[in-house]
Specification:
alpha+beta; 3-stranded antiparallel β-sheet; 3 strands; 21% strand; globular
Length: 57
């Protein structure tokens, strides 16, 4: 990896027994997807499509 650390933490968990990935962005927003590419595009697209937990749409 190049560049300096940003301190942003992205987390993707696999939900056992399924094909579902559950992602949590550094801003607290959550997303689920079956496609890893879709998940990373969502993560790296921050803040577009991100709404932190506790903020209704």
């Amino acid at each position: 990896m190049s560049g300096s650390p940003t301190g942003e933490v992205y987390r993707i968990d696999w939900l056992p027994g399924t094909d579902v990935l559950h992602g949590t962005c550094h801003c607290g927003a959550e997303h689920t997807a079956q496609d890893p590419v879709e998940m990373w595009e969502w993560m790296l697209g921050h803040p577009e499509g991100h709404q932190p937990r506790g903020h209704g749409a």
